[in-house]
Structures are given as C-alpha cells and as structure tokens.
C-alpha cells in the first residue's frame, strides 16, 4: 500500500510548503532494493523490492518493528553495504558504480552518520570530536576549530565546547554527534535510532533539533525510529514491514 501525498488546501502558507516539497530535488533515490543474507534454506531476505525517494531539505523517518529492515536499508543508502539487487543513487551518483575507495570518500565527504550510542571518542572534548571528520580531510587546524565551534553553537552547546563526553548528558552527547555529522557539509545525514537511549522529552528535543538543522542547512536526513510520537516531526514517513515498504506518506 502506497498512500498519496496529502495537500493542505486551507491556506496560502500550507500550499506554499506543499509546492516547495513537490519542487524539491530527490537527493536519495532507492530503486527496487533487495538484500539477502545466507543461502539455500538459511537465506534471509532483509529487504524485498523497496523503492522510495528522499528529497533535499526534508527529514524522512523510517519506521517499523525490529527486524523490519530499517538498519539494512540505512546501511545500503550509506554505502556501508551493497544490495543483492536494485540500486541506490545519492545526488545522482549510483553507489553500485563506485569501488570501495570511492565509496569510502563518499561516506567521508557527503554523508554524516548519527548513532544510537553517540559514537563519541571519550578522551576528546566536544569541539575535538566534532573536528574528527575534518581532520580526516586534512582541514587546517584553525579552520577546523572555527567550524566545530560554529556547529556546536548551532546545536545549542556553545558553552560546552571543552567538555568531554563523560561530562555531558545523553542529550548533549547526541547534539555533539549531530554537530559532528554536519562537519563536512554532507548532502545526507543518516541517523539510526538516535533517540533510542534518551528519555522521551530529550528524544523529542533531539528530533526537533534534527528537523531544524535539516531545514537550516538544506541537507536530507533519513532517521530510523520506533517511537510513534516522533513521526509527526518528519516531513515524510516510510514504513517497512518484513523487508517490504508498506507506507510512504508525506
């Protein structure tokens, strides 16, 4: 079942938002994606013919129960895995056309990752953690620190730049992780259950921040979440069930 986009016909502002959404470029295109693991009687079909688009400047939420294929889909879109069949295009680039070195460069330069467990380096300060992706690109130290501080200010942590992860709350650590994901000005942010270790109030605050960042920075975000209370914050909701897409609603 694929639901049609709902339009707001009640006013100019709503219609303008819908028109902007329709006009937005598809940053991520997933076409008939299949992913299987194992073979013979032990073969597991994690994804079964999934197709959808994620548009530039929008936050798309992936929902579904554990085992529905959300993480597998994120891994394929992020170039961390290769499909059994089908293809993924990011900004017009077919990921299947890239060798491993090119995919590594793509992940470093064009994709920002946010993990449920934050993934921060304990011995580094917040500003140093945000600077890690830029260090990998050999961005000069002064430029690296200036951008890291700017991004921490963007996520509301201007007063915590010198604190290490252990000195920050869970919500603050996830904000550092979001700032780090933006370090190299990515086209796409991939977040796998970014609120999974947070209480409901903090989780909603982090999701609202992601939405605000997507709109202010003009990036695309794919966010896997099992929390139905966070769906209303997304521009689009894609539901997976047993590896199949069962809903795609804006």
UniProtKB/TrEMBL annotation:
SUPFAM superfamilies: P-loop containing nucleoside triphosphate hydrolases (SSF52540). InterPro entries: AAA+_ATPase (IPR003593), ABC_transporter-like_ATP-bd (IPR003439), ABC_transporter-like_CS (IPR017871), ABC_transpr_LolD-like (IPR015854), MacB-like_ATP-bd (IPR017911), P-loop_NTPase (IPR027417). This is ABC transporter ATP-binding protein. It comes from Streptacidiphilus pinicola. Residues 28-250 form the ABC transporter domain. Keywords: ATP-binding, Nucleotide-binding, Transport. GO terms for molecular function: ATP binding; ATP hydrolysis activity; transmembrane transporter activity. Pfam families: ABC_tran. PANTHER family: ABC TRANSPORTER RELATED (PTHR24220:SF685), IMPORT ATP-BINDING PROTEIN (PTHR24220). The keyword Transport applies. GO terms for cellular component: membrane protein complex; plasma membrane. The keyword Phosphoprotein does not apply. SMART domains: AAA.
